[in-house]
Amino acid sequence: MSDSLQRVRHLRALVEYRGERFAGWQIQPNQRTVQGELEQALSTLCREELRVHGSGRTDSGVHARGQVATFTTVSDLPLQRILRGLNGLTGHDLSVLALDEVEPSFHPRRSALGKVYAYRLLLRRSPSPLASDWSWHLPQNDLDIVCLRRELASLEGTADWSAYRAGDCGASNTVKTLYRAEVRNESNDIVALEFEGSGFLKQMVRILVGTAVDVARGKLEEGAMLRIREQGMRSEAGITAPAHGLCLERVLYEV
User: Fold this and answer.
1) 114-252 CATH pick, 2.40.30.10, 3.40.50.720, 3.30.457.10, 3.30.70.660
2) What backbone torsions phi and psi does residue 115 show, to the nearest 5 degrees?
3) Which residues are annotated as catalytic?
4) CA nearest 71: which of 37, 24, 108?
5) Which CATH number fits domain 3-101: 3.40.50.740, 3.30.70.580, 1.10.357.10, 1.10.10.410?
6) What is the model's pLDDT at position 1?
7) What are the backbone angles phi and psi of residue 123, rounded to the nearest 5°?
8) What is the mean pLDDT of each run of 10 residues along the chain (255 residues)?
9) What local confidence, expressed as pLDDT, does residue 3 receive?
10) Which end of the chain is more exposed for a tag (fewer CB within 10 A), N or C?
């Protein structure tokens, strides 16, 4: 087929990965990244230089089971062959779960209506060899779950979240809507803190979790998280919870 007759396809991928094996999503010199791994595999498979765009940049150590990425190709390989080829060329810590064709107007970040993150806590005295890579182990049995639920639920709504962002966060708009902040038990000793919002600032979920844990342990008074948000001072909030407990669960789009 001549170049003039080649059809350009816009493809969307649903991606899952283990964050501790990558230096984050975005390509960085001399670092293994999710974006870099996908671009290398796609360029080999489709025999052209391809650029992959993601719904957002997960930090080093942060996992994803619902990252969304797009790329444009003139390759006429069937979707299932591209899918199988990608999973054959990437490592065991990265998987493309689904692949479909979308309109050129679709963009994984600009078209998103929101995201859902979950942060998992391991609440027991002994560590877990199985859960250590994807949960934050809190060995002290002093977390008030009822208080934790109330504190997080009180944060729902639209607000300026400057107090809950990383010092090097470059976002110009710090006003976001937190639609839902819930606590659910996944097992006897695993608790998931789930956040659904219009968008999140750099390390926002991890700082929210670190601060909520301080409240639930009595290190901060109940209601402190609203006060801290109103004051807008990062120094008043808690620690940034470890990256490995955080997972991007879903990116929300119009059906």
Assistant:
1) 3.30.70.660
2) -140, 155
3) 59
4) 108
5) 3.30.70.580
6) 46
7) -110, 85
8) 73 97 94 97 95 96 98 96 96 96 97 98 95 94 93 97 95 96 94 97 98 97 97 96 98 92
9) 52
10) C
